[in-house]
């Protein structure tokens, strides 16, 4: 998979070999960490993209809604579970702090983004480089800073080539949504709705922007590959 690939929920779960339920998954089943983001207007968390698509600021998660905590949005985001173990917030926070204290390498995190119901985008692999707590609406929330990684975990494992520069920028969610609507969720060349990808019309490596819908289009895998051959 390449960053910018548009996939179904099922394909995402197949890729990670697990039914993804939670937004934050530290060392999912003992493997890579995975986070799910969503910047749709009704999404519960305010994740954001900075620095031309290299940086993702991801918001931590609220306490679960229970009888004791009926309104999670008025309670500090928890670092520990009632039993004393670390929550997902706590696990990611600890990993970021240990990295800052030079006690460990950065945690690699696979990031998927929900485009709309059942439709997801693979955003690539990020490194967790910082974490902090902020006061928002009279409560504490966690913020995690992630930077898009040059290398892919799977490439590293297989000792393969690095991902190409074109994919070294993340397309902001609002741009993805605008392009999805404009191109009606289809390949602009053939109208296919399968194996779609957000394509930079002018590649990032040649000065094209990730930040404007005018430079992004939807292509199917076949037309994405034939375009690559043309560019060489
Ligand atoms: Zn096509």
Notes on the protein architecture:
The chain has 232 residues and is of the alpha+beta class. It folds into two domains: 6-170, Roll (PUA domain-like), CATH 2.30.280; 171-232, no CATH class. Helix content is 21%, strand content 28%. The strands form two sheets. Strands 1, 2, 3, 4, 5, 6, 7 and 8 form an eight-stranded mixed sheet that branches. A two-stranded antiparallel sheet has the order 9-10. The radius of gyration is 18 Å and the shape is globular. Mean pLDDT is 87; it is low at 159-166. Zinc ion is lined by residues 187, 189-190, 192, 219-220, 222-223.
Structural topology:
Layout: E1 6-8, H1 9-16, E2 24-25, E3 33-37, E4 48-50, E5 55-59, H2 88-100, E6 107-116, E7 119-136, E8 139-148, H3 153-158, H4 173-182, E9 196-200, E10 216-220, H5 221-231
Parallel strand pairs: 3-6
Antiparallel strand pairs: 1-7, 2-3, 4-5, 5-8, 6-7, 7-8, 9-10
The structure holds zinc ion (ZN).
